Amino acid sequence: MTRLARFFHLHPRLGLLALLCLPLAWLGLVYLGSLSALVVQSFFRLDDFSGLVVRRFSLDTWRSLLQPANLDIARRTVVMAALVTLADALLAFPVAYYMARYASERLKALLAVAVLLPLWSSYLVRVYAWKLILAKEGMLTWALERLGLHGVLEATLALPGIGGPSLSVSPLGTFVAFVYVWLPYMVLPIQAALERVPRSLLEASADLGARPSTSLRRVVLPLALPGIVAGSIFTFSLTLGDFIVPGVLGNSSLFIGQAVLAHQGTAGNIPLAAAFTAIPMAIMAVYLVLAKRMGAFDAL
Amino acid sequence: MAVSRIAVRLRDVHRRFGDVRAVDGVSLEIRDGEFFSMLGPSGSGKTTCLRLVAGFDQPTNGSVELFEKPMAGVPPWERDVNTVFQDYALFPHMDVAENVAYGLRVKGVARAERKRRVAEALELVRLPDVGGRRPAQLSGGQRQRVALARALVNGPRVLLLDEPLGALDLKLRQEMQGELKALQERLGITFLHVTHDQEEALAMSDRLAVFNHGRVEQVGTPAEVYEAPATGFVAGFVGASNLIAGELAQALTGSPAAFTVRPEKIRILPDDASVPEAACVATGVIAEAAYLGAFTRFGVDVSGARLVVVAQNSGSAGGDLDALRGRSARLVWPIAANRPRSS
């Protein structure tokens, strides 16, 4: 045992290798392997007559991905992911700011638990809970009727592209549920970034003549930006790939995740499903490069 | 110096944090154009007082005035003072020039003038070539100068300095002491300086206030505070002092009243040397001797009391200090060096 310890002490690189060989094997074979299998699949094509996958190189699948109906799915998903990210950032910032700057240690721990608590219950349960809240006979409709705001709900549901027969089968309902389920992933990185802004920087800003709104814009936001970008990586990518929330709360228009599910399942068109997955992967690759430039990974 | 104008006035200021009386009835008048230090151990209330003047905090009782104007309810961004922070508080996402320009920028000063004044300010602190660098790329001493430039560029009437030299090493600290003092004389504005380092306060200040437990123990020029400490605390905190009381005091002065005497006022004379007039003479045994470069510090036991004596190493210093231990020594100092201990 002592000889082994001495050996690794004298050869630290070998020690590191021994430590990492299991996760490296997992990442290399299982993770990257399946990803590359996916990419390869997207260059096969489905034979329309037999319904079988033709395992020969072809760009047919990519061509069919560029059909307007499919591009519509991609656009809808990206717009939703962007809006969800924006809403989460707007909701999370004040909470994170309060936690980082004003809350006592006890309250801060309490708030951290409150933010994390939803993650301890099943995601499916939470999405179905929103189904119950938003349903036509659900809590929200009931509460709005008691408050005499039924007209507001009706008017909102009548909006094209947002509304629907009820909140539980509308883009708005999908949006609300998305904002809710991903919010914790935005609060925590922003809080971490704000924790690292010393109080004296805000005092210096005020001392030099800046009003609080100016200090927020010129000092706090730029220093919190890496945290906001880090949080947005979660909210954006999670929305981009999700098929549960739009499935439970959406209308008949598909999101990327649902399209992938449909093509690889019932339609048996694995190549097109694989090509669809490439969209969020490509978007996220660009996004991560930009995020890295903005220093987002320093805030994780 | 315009002697009569008061730049900063604290009137019976109290600041309590829960049960803690951080500042407990401080009244001070700091004259326009003066280099004024607030000296005290940590937790003595000096930094809290500075924050009350800057406007980061409000007094529980009492009032703060700047140039005769009461500052109650005036936020920091409307006060004509600027602060050099202990941790410098430079903005990490801005380069040096942007840091220095910040105050001008938020006040809407035009770009060309901003550029000119930033260059002037960096010149003033002798850092003309670092404008494009980030604070993280600077040394501690350079950061300190940038913080100074960032405050001075706004042309404040009072500059507040919170332990500005605390993070620098000894050599740099002494260099900056002289520079800060020269800068203050050149600009002619009021410097209100907080420090726990008595040497720093003595070296730079026109006047200083000694703080203890949230109160001011004494206000005066460095010489006044050092030569005539008003309280036992001041005598002990500003320089070292020997406290002589009881029988020894009776034997030396004919009165049991306690008094203090500075270590450097006491000389160790050979037994055969003649004693000057009006002097206290005590014989003791050298218990310790420490070589401190410019000085040698002795601990001499006289009738059960340990007196500290500091002798300048003007001749061939050093020698075998160990051999001195246990020898008897005759201590002589002028009676005029005795300071009554008032509290």
Question: What is this entry, summarized?
Answer:
The complex is a heterodimer of chains A (300) and B (343). By secondary structure, chain A is an all-alpha fold. Chain A has helices at 2-10, 12-41, 60-65, 68-101, 105-116, 123-134, 139-146, 150-158, 171-195, 199-207, 212-241, 244-249, 256-264, 270-293; strands spanning 45-46, 53-54.
Characterize the structure shown.
The complex is a heterodimer of chains A (300) and B (343). Chain A has 300 residues and is an all-alpha fold. Helices cover 74% and strands 1% of the residues of chain A. Chain A has helices at 2-10, 12-41, 60-65, 68-101, 105-116, 123-134, 139-146, 150-158, 171-195, 199-207, 212-241, 244-249, 256-264, 270-293; strands at residues 45-46, 53-54. In chain A, helix 1 (2-10) crosses helix 2. The model of chain A has no long low-confidence stretch (mean pLDDT 89). Chain B is elongated and about 75 Å long. Chain B has two domains: 6-230, P-loop containing nucleotide triphosphate hydrolases (Rossmann fold); 242-340, OB fold (Dihydrolipoamide Acetyltransferase, E2P) (Beta Barrel).
Strand order of the largest sheet of chain B: 6-7-8-3-9-10
CATH superfamily of the largest domain in chain A: MetI-like
Number of domains of chain A: 2
Q: By helix and strand content of chain A, what is the structural category?
A: mainly alpha
Gyration radius of chain A, rounded: 24 Å
